[in-house]
């Protein structure tokens, strides 16, 4: 079973970007005229029940880990990213508190005249970038550019049966770092990406541009003149 995220649906020359689930897909197929192609991010659910509710060193609420629970099906994908963001921070803090050499936050104060920027930010960033946490949206790890290389996509399309009825079937599933497809970041174009999939002779068969929406890391500047800089987790890009 997989959960769908933001999808790019193509109906003729029309393009729609929206969060879409399996029920929405069936409704689109029923109402569409002509061929329909959908590219969407998915979140594979572990078949083992114990892995669904307990991943790594954290326990997931039963209402979130059970794919048959109505609440888990109605949750917005954005909430899953928020959960994983908090999970990453909590995991990083736990690791750093076990490191006695780390600059702790005990020295911080709210008194203005004694306040100074916290010096543990970069160390915290490096700990977060190591990832290795299995969250609700999958395995959380980060490449050099801050993006998660293990993002799952699938391509759905309409098919026509002998009874002239229309249905939807999965043409292809792939991971962004997989060998069967390539994913090129197009950050200049409003964080869009170019999806290109290839045939057996390694010739490009088709390409489509889609907005990326995944947990990533960014560098943020604070204060006048960029005197202090920090790092922030971007929930949605």
UniProtKB/TrEMBL annotation:
Span of domain Receptor ligand binding region: 45-159
GO CC, one annotated term: membrane
Location of this chain's protein in the cell: Membrane
SUPFAM superfamilies: Periplasmic binding protein-like I
Designated name of the protein: Receptor ligand binding region domain-containing protein
Coiled-coil residue windows: none
InterPro entries noted in UniProt: ANF_lig-bd_rcpt (IPR001828), Peripla_BP_I (IPR028082)
Keyword Nucleotide-binding in annotation: no
Pfam family membership, one: ANF_receptor
Keywords annotated in UniProt: Membrane, Transmembrane, Transmembrane helix
Principal location listed in the UniProt entry: membrane
